[in-house]
């Protein structure tokens, strides 16, 4: 017969078990709710499911939803008087959701590497007979007139133009690029290109494609085969995502921390621009700081966090906020905008540093004391990110970006895997120290 277990031992054992389970639960909860993993956030925002956070497959709205979820998870509230985190606005934008192929001499080219399409490209499917346009033709009025008239009036629908800049002066190259862009209103254009590909977003569309072809890929083929499909969206809906942490004591004063989350989206169904450095990295830092300020709010300032949309289409989200402020611009003591936070080996540049010297000196001093970054470099005014319309309206604002060996910018190589995150943790602390110094 098996002896009955001692009741007291059983009680102790069950208490111990439940204590352990509880502790495990508390631990796993606090680990789950603690430390937002900024690298993971960056990686998620760069994943193919987010479609380059642009204008194909609702990429930018997927990102907006994700950021709103993070705000919610961190326990941040929408701004007073707002039902949710979103501030909606509209704009026209050109997009490339469909198939995209360019075939040259029987070889299918690699989208994003061998060629890109100008952001304002239109559509064309079929073979194009390429007529040459170069500096010599532009220099001769007769030659140019005869080329344009052939394209306009003697064109069965398959003639296009091949823009060759070889041997041209810098001035002539500019002129040729300008003409190439104009020509896309009347025929498909292939422009040979020897510089780094840097894509962007256009709010308008030409009738035909304008292909920028890496000149080393081209070798005298008179025919190019292309399938390029654009979709012009006349009123694209986008959302700024906004949350805040109230000050410990009731306050009417605000600090803003902002970062754009949109990027360039897809260029054809198979190719997308992950925008890791620009600006999944800055969005992730903003979320990390949202977590830090939620845990330990400022005494005198409410801290507002805005993930802007439409930055790559022309600073549209921040412009919309400035024109339709929820918290009045005169209540903002300082705005810090982060964009391109993924490196930092060479430190950071502070746009508007020379416009607000007192704040800049304070930043430099904090960095010297704490030894965060190799360099805090001053720069003047520049309309290159979402701080711009705020400071134009008199809001003291900085835009900081990291410097380092990573030169992947507005191209398909701006990938999560190519970020060093050299100063990611230091930057999170540094920005926090600086904002808390107000
Ligand atoms: Zn950017």
Task: Describe the protein in words.
This protein has two domains: 37-95 and 233-436, Zn peptidases (Aminopeptidase, 3-Layer(aba) Sandwich); 100-228, 3-Layer(bba) Sandwich (Glucose Oxidase, domain 1). It has eleven helices and 18 strands. It has helices at 7-33, 38-46, 59-74, 135-139, 141-153, 170-183, 276-295, 316-323, 357-370, 388-392, 424-436, and strands spanning 86-95, 100-104, 107-108, 115-117, 124-133, 159-163, 189-193, 210-214, 223-228, 231-245, 254-260, 265-266, 272-273, 302-308, 332-338, 348-351, 376-378, 397-402. The strands form three sheets. The chain has an eight-stranded mixed sheet with strand order 1-10-14-11-15-18-16-17, with helices on both faces. It has an eight-stranded mixed sheet with strand order 3-2-9-5-6-7-8-4. Helix 6 links the parallel strand 6 (159-163) and strand 7 (189-193). Helix 2 packs antiparallel against helix 7. The N and C termini lie far apart (76 Å). Mean pLDDT is 93; it is low at 1-5 and 7-33. Bound molecules: zinc ion. Zinc ion binds at residues 260, 278-279, 311, 339, 385.
């Amino acid at each position: 017969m098996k002896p009955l277990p001692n009741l007291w031992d059983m009680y102790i054992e069950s208490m111990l078990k439940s204590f352990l389970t509880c502790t495990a639960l508390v631990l796993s909860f606090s680990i789950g709710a603690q430390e937002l993993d900024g690298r993971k956030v960056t990686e998620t925002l760069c994943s193919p499911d987010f479609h380059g956070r642009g204008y194909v497959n609702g990429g930018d709205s997927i990102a907006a939803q994700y950021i709103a979820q993070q705000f919610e998870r961190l326990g941040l509230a929408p701004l007073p008087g707002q039902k949710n985190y979103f501030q909606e606005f509209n704009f026209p934008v050109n997009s490339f959701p469909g198939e995209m192929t360019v075939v040259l001499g029987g070889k299918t080219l690699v989208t994003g590497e061998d060629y890109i399409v100008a952001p304002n490209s239109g559509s064309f499917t079929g073979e194009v007979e390429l007529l040459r346009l170069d500096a010599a033709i532009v220099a001769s009025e007769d030659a140019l007139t005869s080329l344009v008239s052939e394209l306009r009036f003697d064109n069965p629908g398959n003639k296009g133009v091949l823009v060759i800049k070889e041997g041209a002066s810098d001035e002539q190259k500019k002129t040729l690029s300008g003409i190439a862009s104009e020509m896309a209103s009347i025929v498909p254009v292939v422009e040979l290109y020897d510089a780094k590909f840097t894509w962007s977003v256009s709010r308008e569309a030409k009738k035909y494609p304008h292909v920028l072809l890496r000149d080393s890929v081209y070798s005298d083929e008179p025919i190019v085969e292309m399938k390029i499909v654009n979709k012009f969206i006349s009123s694209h809906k986008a959302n700024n995502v906004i949350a805040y942490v109230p000050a410990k004591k009731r306050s009417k004063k605000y600090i803003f921390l902002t970062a754009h989350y949109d990027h360039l989206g897809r260029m054809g169904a198979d190719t997308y621009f992950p925008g890791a450095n620009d600006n999944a990295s800055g969005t992730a830092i903003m979320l990390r700081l949202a977590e830090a300020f939620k845990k330990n709010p400022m005494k005198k300032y409410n801290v507002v966090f805005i993930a802007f949309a439409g930055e790559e289409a022309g600073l549209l989200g921040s412009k919309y906020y400035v024109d339709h402020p929820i918290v009045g611009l005169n209540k903002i003591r300082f705005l810090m905008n982060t964009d391109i936070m993924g490196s930092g080996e060479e430190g950071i540049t502070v746009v508007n540093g020379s416009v607000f010297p007192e704040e800049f000196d304070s930043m430099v001093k904090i960095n010297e004391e704490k030894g965060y970054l190799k360099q805090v470099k001053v720069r003047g005014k520049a309309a290159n990110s979402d701080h711009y319309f705020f400071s134009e309206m008199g809001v003291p604002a900085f835009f900081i970006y990291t410097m380092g060996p990573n030169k992947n910018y507005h191209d398909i190589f701006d990938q999560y895997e190519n970020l060093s995150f050299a100063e990611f943790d230091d930057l999170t602390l540094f920005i926090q120290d600086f904002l808390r110094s107000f």
